[in-house]
């Protein structure tokens, strides 16, 4: 696994690390059909590759309008988030990535950890457009995430959403 990187890295260096992470994930998940195992592997590989990732996890769509926590790394997260609440809810509702430089400036941010300063939430859709989950990454640093993080995480989410998880996630 790559060493964790400091936040000062520029976008092209970030993208290089994401390429390595992606290659490891694809190799680890080759032939794997279990959705929970896949999410856990993705979270682990991402979380330990960037030192500005302080909380990394998935929220799964478990019923219409409701997210429930999935595999994550970091301190405890909220267990359930309705689509009507939080930055995760906004990503689920809109189907669009939420890139938040300053969580204190977002009225709808749910503060599970008082140390969080910025975050990115990326929806995971099937190719048919069904929302499976959102990938939430929180940082204790302000404006930690850039367009490079957004691009790489969106590509990863698209890859994950397009995989055959043996009939789909439970
Ligand atoms: N950042 C989220 C919630 C944080 S967690 O539960 C780790 C939100 O506002 O949706």
Description of the structure:
The model has no long low-confidence stretch (mean pLDDT 93). Helix content is 33%, strand content 24%. It has helices spanning 11-28, 35-47, 86-94, 147-162; strands spanning 55-63, 66-73, 80-82, 98-100, 118-125, 131-139. The chain has four helices and six strands; from the N terminus they run ααβββαβββα. The protein has 170 residues and is of the alpha+beta class. The chain has a single domain (11-162), classed as Beta-Lactamase. α1 runs antiparallel to α2 (35-47) and α1 runs parallel beside α4. A six-stranded antiparallel β-sheet has the order 3-2-1-6-5-4, with helices on both faces. It is globular, with a radius of gyration of 15 Å. The protein starts with 10 loop residues before the first helix and ends in an 8-residue tail after the last helix. The structure holds methionine sulfoxide. Residues 55, 77-78, 81, 86-88, 109-110, 112, 119, 136, 138 line the site of methionine sulfoxide.
What order do the helices and strands come in, and which of them pair?
Elements: H1 11-28, H2 35-47, E1 55-63, E2 66-73, E3 80-82, H3 86-94, E4 98-100, E5 118-125, E6 131-139, H4 147-162
Bound molecules: methionine sulfoxide.
């Amino acid at each position: 696994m790559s060493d964790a990187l400091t936040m000062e890295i520029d976008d092209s260096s970030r993208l290089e690390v994401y390429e390595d992470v992606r290659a490891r994930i694809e190799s680890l998940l080759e032939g794997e059909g279990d959705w929970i195992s896949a999410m856990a592997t993705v979270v682990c590989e991402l979380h330990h590759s960037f030192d500005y990732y302080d909380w990394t996890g998935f929220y799964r769509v478990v019923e219409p309008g409701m997210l429930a926590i999935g595999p994550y790394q970091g301190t405890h997260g909220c267990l359930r988030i309705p689509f009507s609440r939080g930055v995760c809810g906004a990503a689920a509702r809109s189907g669009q990535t939420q890139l938040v430089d300053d969580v204190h400036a977002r009225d709808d941010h749910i503060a599970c950890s008082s140390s969080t300063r910025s975050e990115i939430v990326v929806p995971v859709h099937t190719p048919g457009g069904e929302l499976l989950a959102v990938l939430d990454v929180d940082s204790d640093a302000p404006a930690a995430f850039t367009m490079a993080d957004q691009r790489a995480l969106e590509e990863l989410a698209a890859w994950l959403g397009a995989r055959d998880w043996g009939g789909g996630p439970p």
